[in-house]
Amino acid sequence: MSEIAPVADATARARLLDAVRFDARGLVPVVAQQHDTGEVLMLAWMNRAALAETLATGRVTYYSRSRDALWRKGETSGQVQRLVDLRLDCDGDALLALVDQQGVACHTGRRSCFSWALREGAVRSVAEPLVDPKTLYDR
């Protein structure tokens, strides 16, 4: 599977945007999955503007609820996600972004944000950081 080009057809982009059922806050959850391995990398949110930008550029853009702003994945860390395919669930209220993740996906320096599990009666890390988080954001 190769990286798709941005969706150049404005009509096609509008059709997908109209098919998404954003919640009352104007958001939709997005699961990011590595396209070639199936590894689940992260869960984030998109608003209409983030989804439109993702479709137009091919670079995955999310909506940061804490910053109340668009979040272009990798903008500060260099750990960019390129869109390979975008899928809408059967209810239209969730997205699956198949991506090509450059580097780690998690702000903790781990490949995946889903790196904690119940082990021996406690929640513990099941994946060590691959990158020191300070090097991701002290650029």
UniProtKB/TrEMBL annotation:
Q: Where are the transmembrane segments?
A: none
Q: Which Gene Ontology molecular-function terms are recorded?
A: phosphoribosyl-AMP cyclohydrolase activity
Q: Which reaction does it catalyse?
A: 1-(5-phospho-beta-D-ribosyl)-5'-AMP + H2O = 1-(5-phospho-beta-D-ribosyl)-5-[(5-phospho-beta-D-ribosylamino)methylideneamino]imidazole-4-carboxamide
Which pathway does it serve? Amino-acid biosynthesis; L-histidine biosynthesis; L-histidine from 5-phospho-alpha-D-ribose 1-diphosphate: step 3/9
Read off the InterPro entries from this record: PRA-CH, PRib_AMP_CycHydrolase_dom, PRib_AMP_CycHydrolase_sf
What's the chief localization of this chain?
cytoplasm
Top class in the EC scheme: hydrolase
Give the family per the record.
Belongs to the PRA-CH family.
What is the name attached to this protein's record? Phosphoribosyl-AMP cyclohydrolase
Q: Which organism is it from?
A: Caldovatus aquaticus
